[in-house]
Design a protein that fits this description.
35% of the residues lie in helices and 17% in strands. By secondary structure, the chain is α+β, with helices and mostly antiparallel strands.
Length: 764
Amino acid sequence: MPKRKVCILGAGPGGLSAAWALSSPQLRERFAVEVYQMGWRAGGRAASAQNPDRGNRIEQNGSHYLFGSYRNTFKLVRAVYDELGPSSPFGRIEDEFTPRNLLVGKRHLPDETWEDWFQFMPTNLSRPDEGGKYARPFDYCFMAFQTVLRILLGVFDFGDDPARTARWVTWMFPISPFKQDRPADNKKSAILRAVLAIPAFLVNYPLAWMLRGAWRTASFCYQRLLSTYTRFRIKEAAVRWFKASTVTWRGRTRNIWREIHAFAIRNSLGHAWVGRIERLTTLWEVACAFAVGVATDELWRAGRLDQIDGLDFRAWLTRNGCAPEAVQSAYIKCWYDAVAAYEDGDVARPSISAAVSVYAVFRAILTYRGNFAYQMRHEVGDGVIAPLVSALMNRGVEFHFFQRVRDVVPAVVEGKSLIDRIELEPQLPDGVRGADCFERRPGDRRPYWRYAPSLEGDPTRFPSAEQLPALESFYGADSGRRRTLRRGEHFDDVVFALPLPAIEHDARSLLCRPEWERMVATIKSTETVSLRIWFTWTLKQLGWTDPAPILSGYDSPFSTWEDNGHNADHASFPPGQEPQAIATVFGPLEAPPFAPGPGPSGETYQRDQIARATAKVDEFFRTGIGNLWSNLFKGGQLRYDAFCDLSKPPLPLDDSRRLQWQFMRANVGPLERYTLALPSTLQHRLRPDESGHVNMVLAGEWTRNGVEVGCMEGAVISGLAAARAICDRPVEIVGEHDLEFGLLTPAVGSQVEPDPETRRIHMT
């Protein structure tokens, strides 16, 4: 039989993961996969590149982490590296990621100073790229031991450094199998893992076998020996007891915490002790509110999370008795800042769905394997996207770059709605085409994304170097050329993986269906701004003496700081001018709910937003940067010599123009906006198999996928689900059955009820 032609629109993580599943060895003879992408780089908002004119520095759109709970993403990346092989130019997966376990929340004090709230996330022996969703039993025991140890060390630490205990525990347990910042930690990791292997085996297998047997026996007796009414009464009694016990203990412990806090102040134990007590009180309050909320809303039942979608996360915590100071604490603000959860980018309007938040916190804290988070040594574009694209090319997947989608047109055939044609805009003139999308440096086997496209053809007919960025910009000039892909000739099935905000402009014909129009009008997004800084000083010289953190909760718009010092080894700065520290700060940028379309108004809007972002950067350098790195100011004057600069001719060390050499990125326009998970919007998201068109499925973090925050894991899950809907074959998605949330159960009260005939496959 001839292969079915699958056309994937968009080479972001969602589209690429769908291509990976459809090009597997089991399906290779059934499907011919082609990917169409605007510009010359894949990855969407996960794309990055290295600027050869500025020391091959990495330039990307903001902060990127892969968290230990991103099981589907890590399993995909693991499969890619295994298929390429350890001798490939991309190397081993163990050398690409580095662990991060120290969370830091910035707390604004009444005297206009800032305080750091440290939280060490314990490590475990599991790997995020192997196994199921949850860590092993021994890992949870070992994590509990580290938590207790950290608290005990804090009790006996009478110093004024609140991060000392986190540094101690981090130094004691560097057990990640991935490459760590210090070579000594890699050797220590191997020794610790070998020592812990025997107790881990004794717990993971005999004890787990006994616990599994006891659970199955209890479940059998509960289901088979008790009547439905008896089970109902037992469940109701258990829920009431759990809720009442939690509320009672919360009330008692509140009094205990107040007494401890008063004792610390009365006896002048110091700011460090008072801070520890406040942090523990906050964590206890939030944990109790979670427990009460889970019991009250019965969130273990299928579809129950949808019932709290109408509440903001802070409102849900307040409804479940969380103290106001805990609701407004640095820890909760970190969550809002990390996902830019501000309507229209306005920090005065924080908003995120309680359903999305509760499930995201559950996955992030209780299901991570290995380390809480990981950073990429070549960043996401060269460390994840480039190997994935290379492996897909080896599988025979065909990539068509410089192809911008201009419309996706459906038609009704025999009473069924199908995608009939796709209108594309070839961005390059006739006779000019893109060549290899990778380049290699002298003496380096590893391929990197080209910073500028490599072209074959008549170079005189191609836009100048100043116009190259327009090839990846939503507001780039229209070439005026058109190419039509037709059903039956160029494609049989379509994977729609473009960003949601672009639908209104580049796939407008899809809005003929009311559910599409409702989704596009309801699901909002926001614009963001990021600033990457290269320092001539080390972190210690800058004033940060603790391990590399995951820091958020700072003043907007640069509320999140990602340390990128691990990228310094891959730059090629001149000798003596190498960066000693690299930092990325990131946050929301005020913008209207929906960006304007292309044309003069769009170009004006883009210029205005870039000017607004530039003003935010200038303000950050004047007033905000000193609260992150205290040593940058001397006598009220910013130390310009702390900033790298490769300008020619070199600038003096005290020249303020050194700040202009740093990289600012305003993520403006429909293609670069960050999708928000506002309350009461889950019901309007379409699932990957709910396009309403027989031959089209959806992929992207904006779909209903069970994660629903702007992250790679949601996009990968969506892409895998889209592939499964096309191929009608099992495609493993880790965690989709958990709490019956996301892919499996229809949204409660959903207005999207597509005709069963229009669905490619029902997911079961």
